[in-house]
Each structure stands twice: as C-alpha cells, then as structure tokens.
Amino acid sequence: MIGKTLGLYLSSRFFRMILAVFATIFSLVFVVDFVELLRRTGNIPGVTTTSVAFLSFLRTPAVSEQVLPFCVLFGAMAVFLNLTRKLELLVARASGISVWQFLGPPVTIAALIGIVSVTVLNPLSAVMKRRADVIETAIFGSDGGHDSKPEVWIRQTGVDGEAILRAASASDHNNRLAGVIAYIYDHDGAFTERVKAAEAELGPGGAWTLRDALVTQPGEAPRQAATYLIATSSRPGELGEGAMAAATVPVWQRPALRAETEEAGLDGAPYRLQYQTLLARPLLLVAMILIAAAFSLRFFRFGGVGKFVGGGVAAGFVLYVATKYVGDLGGSGVLSPPVAAWSPAIVATMLGSLALLNQEDG
C-alpha cells in the first residue's frame, strides 16, 4: 500500500492545484461579469461601482459551481504532467507502487471536494444568487434589465375548487401578479368561469384578490367586478420558493419543493433531476480524475504529450456536453431523473478505468 508520507504529498499537490484553478476561474468569471454589469448600469443613476462589484460577487459562485468538474480535470492533468516530467511517478513505479495506488489520494480529494461542493458551496451559492436577484430587480426592474418577460403560471387548490392563474409578470416572490387571467374550475373539474384582471395579490387569509376584474361565464355576458376573490391553500411566501429555478434552490430544500410542486399539479421533475445531479457530482469529479490520469501519465521521452493533453481536454468537454444532453432528456421526461443524473458519471468512470487498465495493465 502507498505510504502515509507519499499519500499526504500527493493529496496536498492535487488539492492546491485544483484550488488554484478554481480560484483563477472564479476571478475570471467575476471580472467578466463585473465589466458586463458596469456596461448595463452605466446610464442608471445612483448605482455605484461598489454596489455593482458586490452584485457581481454574489452572482459568481453560481456560475463557478458549474465549471467545478473542469477545475478538477485541469488541475489533475497539471499535477500528473508535473509529476511525470520530474520523474516522481517513475520513481514511485520503480518502488513497486502501481497506478491504482497513487490514484488513491487524488480520487479521495476529488470525492471530498464533490461532497463539500454539494453540502456547502451549493447552499451558499443558492443563497447568494437569490440575494443577487433581489438587488438586480431593484436596479433594473422586474425583468432584470432584459427585454423578455416570461409568463408566470400558478395552479391553485381551494375550498371552491381549482384555479389556474396566468400572469404577464410577478413580483414580491410571486405574491403580486400583473396582467392576470384566471381559469376557474369546480370540484368535479368542470370549467365555470374566466376572470381577467389588471392585478392580483395573495393575502394572508388564503385568497387571491383580483382587482378591476372582468368575469366571463359560459353562456352569459361578461360582467365587471371591482374585486374578485379566489380561495387558495397557499400562503404568502410559499409561492416564492416553488417558482424558483431548480438550479437556484439549495440542495436540501429540493425534495420538499418537488413534493409541494407535484401536489400543486405542476411538474416537479426539474427539482428531482437537479437533486440527483448534485448527489452524482462526487462521482463525476472522480471520473474527471480518471480521465486526467488516462491522458496525462505518458512519459515525456515517448513524445506526443501535447496530443494526449488535447485529448484529455476534449474528453472532458465531451463528458460535459453529454451530461447536459442527458440532463435535457431527463428534464423532458424521456429518461428518469436518476438515470439522467447518474449515467454520465458512471459511464465516464467506467471508461476512464478501462483506459487505465488497457494503458497500465493491458
């Protein structure tokens, strides 16, 4: 077995290099986003450079979290190449240590980084992203400074039956809606009336209050109503969580939000897919270590190191694209969320192990 001294030495080398690559990418993302936000806020009065920098800092972890597998891949390849160039791995091999033994420390470091990223980085980045959204809304308005305003759909259940609300825009964590059209159904699922209103607000009593409403019932002339109430089981503050994008929800909140979303009759697959994807992240990072080893352990005297490094980078990008593609299949319902989340990491781990077996023991 590999000795404690060598194990700690390899572990420290890999951890420091992966951390350095992550810090570099984090800084690059921050600078690019900061410059872009400065451009967008240039004509907005009252917005200071400090506030823009703070907003960019809040937005950066959510982006950096997505490139963490590449940080592990590039950091591991850099360490493997450095150890090979200095003949340190050659000495280790000559002393009877196999490739599977000196892969133990980097694989362990990658798994630990994956666990920490899921349990610490993901909740932290989600909280920071939500705070950034609030600040961005205050600066740019409800559309975040973009031209498109996606519609909001909410399905509600109350003592009178079900209602589906469509709104042109929402604010205050979806407690206030503008440009509302409500479709009302009774307990048997039969359509009863259509209500169009300028705005709606969810009150603490468990009812939507629609103002300046136009009520249309089948077979009757439309009638005007100053206010129209729709009973609901939701309370203020509950819809803000359920309407969040799956990627901005902390990992431990996703199962509960998925259950609440499905109880409301909406699709909870995105929450389940993202939850399973986060659980599979440690294995994905381990797969990146195996891919880096398969393309970085060639001795320099054999030549062709550049091609192997390029092949490793290309393999990492192919794995990333495959993960996104399979994730889209899972989000569309073609694959189940566990299969879509775990299959890329499992297949990449098997292929990396197979390449190392053929290269080292074949």
Q: Helicity range of the residues?
A: 55-70%
What is the chain-wise order of helices and strands? HHHHHHEEEEEEHHHHHH
Main sheet makeup: 6 strands, antiparallel
Strand content: 15-25%
The count of β-strands is 6
Q: Helical element count?
A: 12
Poorly predicted residue ranges: 143-149
For the biggest β-sheet, the strand order reads 1-2-3-4-5-6
Average predicted confidence as pLDDT: 81
| Rg from alpha-carbon coordinates | 26 Å
The tally of structural domains comes to: 2
Tell me the structural class: alpha+beta
How far is the N terminus from the C terminus?
A: 21 Å
Shape: elongated
Description of the structure:
- The protein is α+β, with helices and mostly antiparallel strands and 362 residues long.
- The chain has two domains: 4-142 and 272-361, no CATH class; 152-243, Roll (SH3 type barrels), CATH 2.30.30.
- The chain has twelve helices and six strands.
- A six-stranded antiparallel sheet has the order 1-2-3-4-5-6, with no helix packed on it.
- A hairpin with a 2-residue loop joins strand 1 and strand 2 (161-171).
- The longest helix has 37 residues, at 4-40.
- The protein is elongated and about 90 Å long.
Mind sketching the topology for me?
Layout: H1 4-40, H2 49-66, H3 68-85, H4 88-94, H5 99-102, H6 104-140, E1 152-158, E2 161-171, E3 176-185, E4 191-203, E5 207-216, E6 223-231, H7 238-242, H8 254-263, H9 269-279, H10 281-296, H11 305-331, H12 337-361
Antiparallel strand pairs: 1-2, 2-3, 3-4, 4-5, 5-6
Helix pairs in contact: 1-2, 1-3, 1-6, 2-6, 3-10, 3-11, 6-10, 8-9, 9-12, 10-11, 10-12, 11-12
